[in-house]
Amino acid sequence: MKKLIAILAIAPILFSATASLRVNSASADQANTSITTDVQKSLEHPLSSDFINKFDQAIKLSGNKFIIDANKLPKDTASEELSKLKALISQKNEIISDSENLKNGTRIEQNNNSVTIISNSGNSGLLRFREGSNYVHVYWWGLRIGLSKSTVNGIGTGVAIGGVWIPEPTVSKVLASLGILAAASPGGIVFNSTPPIAVFWGAEFQ
Hints:
It is built from five helices and ten strands; from the N terminus they run ααββαββββαββαββ. The protein has helices spanning 2-42, 49-55, 79-100, 149-153, 168-177, and strands at residues 59-62, 65-68, 107-111, 114-119, 134-139, 142-147, 158-161, 164-167, 189-193, 200-205.
């Protein structure tokens, strides 16, 4: 009887502790989800120069894949920064991997600190406005995209270069920033962006 009373007395305490653990666990899951969501959202916008400069020395190429050199990470690296860095690296490696699996004449070349995806190269002349070529330089921090004059003027709904899809609305915005109407480019164009291709900067003619 005494044992039963003791068990009944302890039960509310155990239930309270279990409930508390569940609440804490749920709170932790929500916090992790929030961090993950924040990281994913941040990948849709250009990185700050401070972030790029802080981690540039810690990223290197191994084969055609970007990796993080843990020995070169700054000592003051925050967990949120590391999560964002890992997501960026995973994102770019996936683009390269998708392009390597294509069998449509796409070429993959390693170029110092970037991997270049080349497709349907055009002619390059000495004129002010060149035909240019189609390519994507994949850096750990983003992409440098080149589109030939023919590709831009016949863009349709968009164009795929390797494993990267460039939608027409973005190309139109790039052209507008250069003072050109959509599908009326006098030459090839090039611009920086981050996947998904929505935000761009550093636009110019090839």
